[in-house]
């Protein structure tokens, strides 16, 4: 049994622990939820377990399609054994439908417009500077990633979308957009890291348009955890037992 040894870092919603194997770490999903660069924060009981379960299913789907991720094994209701990655300070966003920061930046695009083809955008992962949008040239200027790494992140984000979009469609959910984070493993292979769940994606119920993701928290729509439970049950096909 893999055991957490020492806490090596603590993010806004997850803790990372070292293990006896220097190439592997344990991610622990907490009940914390934050928005607005961490200014708004709360604890929602069960969120950690729900997000661990949803991330498990989605990362397994990607791995099964030969998309390299950090996922190894889920070792507890809220814990995942993953490959240790050297993370790039980037948030890579793939969009299928226009909303959120895209329609603020490009005001000529109407909310809910279905994009003719998915687009990939990069943001600096930095709360102090409010996660600014980065062009590929900016990424090179800041020496965050090489052109080859940028190309690979775009390819993997699109490939992930090719798996996730039809998966969600089958369970009656529109995958509006999602955020990925990437890092190099100890062998230098670029992999999808972090988590994939309603904290990092926009999910709309196809039949009703109901928002099922973290926008319920950001926009004070209420019943956040009830909707995460619904996503868990639709994604995993299992009843949530807590
Ligand atoms: O705010 P924006 O429209 O750029 O968000 C695009 C996608 O990235 C959404 O699914 C959002 O949940 C996700 N995101 C995230 N973490 C951030 C910013 C955005 O997971 N810091």
Q: In words, what does this structure look like?
A:
The chain has 242 residues and is α+β, with helices and mostly antiparallel strands. The protein has helices at 47-64, 101-105, 136-141, 147-170, 215-218, 224-236, and strands at 7-10, 14-18, 24-29, 32-35, 40-43, 71-76, 79-83, 86-87, 90-97, 114-124, 133-134, 173-184, 190-193, 201-205. Strands 8, 9, 10, 11, 12, 13 and 14 form a seven-stranded antiparallel β-sheet that branches. Strands 1-2-3-7-6 form a five-stranded antiparallel β-sheet, covered by helices on one side. α1 runs parallel beside α6. The radius of gyration is 17 Å and the shape is globular. It binds cytidine-5'-monophosphate. Cytidine-5'-monophosphate binds at residues 91, 93, 100-102, 131, 177-179, 200-202, 214.
Q: Return the average pLDDT rounded to an integer.
A: 97
> What Rg is obtained from the alpha carbons, in whole angstroms?
17 Å
Euclidean distance between termini CA atoms: 23 Å
Question: So, the CATH homologous superfamily of the largest domain?
Answer: ATP-grasp fold, B domain
Give the helix tally.
Answer: 6
Fraction of residues in helix: 25-40%
> Which compounds are bound in this model?
cytidine-5'-monophosphate
Main beta sheet, described? 7 strands, antiparallel
> What is the top-level CATH class of the largest domain?
Alpha Beta
The CATH topology assignment of the largest domain is: D-amino Acid Aminotransferase, Chain A, domain 1
Order of helices and strands: EEEEEHEEEEHEEHHEEEHH
Strand content: 25-35%
In CATH, the architecture of the largest domain is 2-Layer Sandwich
Helix/strand structural class: alpha+beta
Q: How many extended strands?
A: 14
Q: Uncertain segments of ≥5 residues (pLDDT<50)?
A: none
Domain module count: 2
């Amino acid at each position: 049994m893999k055991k957490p040894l020492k806490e090596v870092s603590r993010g806004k919603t997850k803790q990372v622990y070292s293990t006896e194997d220097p190439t592997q770490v344990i991610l622990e999903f907490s009940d914390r939820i934050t928005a607005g660069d961490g200014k708004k924060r709360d604890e929602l009981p069960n969120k950690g377990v729900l997000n661990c379960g949803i991330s498990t299913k989605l990362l397994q789907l990607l791995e099964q399609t030969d998309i390299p991720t950090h996922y190894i094994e889920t070792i507890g209701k809220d814990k995942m054994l993953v490959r240790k990655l050297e993370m790039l300070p980037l948030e890579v966003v793939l969009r299928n439908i226009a909303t959120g920061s895209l329609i603020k930046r490009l005001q000529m695009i109407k909310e809910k417009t279905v994009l003719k083809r998915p687009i990939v955008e990069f943001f600096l992962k930095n709360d102090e500077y409010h996660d600014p949008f980065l062009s590929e040239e900016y990424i090179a200027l800041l020496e965050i990633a090489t052109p080859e790494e940028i190309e690979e992140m775009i390819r993997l984000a699109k490939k992930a979308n090719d798996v996730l979009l039809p998966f969600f469609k089958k369970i009656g959910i529109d995958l509006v957009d999602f955020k990925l984070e990437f890092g190099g493993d100890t062998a230098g292979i670029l992999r999808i890291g972090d988590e994939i769940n309603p904290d990092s994606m926009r999910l709309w119920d196809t039949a009703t348009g109901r928002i099922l993701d973290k926008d319920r928290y950001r926009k004070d729509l209420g019943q956040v955890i009830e909707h995460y439970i619904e996503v868990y049950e639709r994604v995993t096909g299992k009843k949530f037992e807590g």
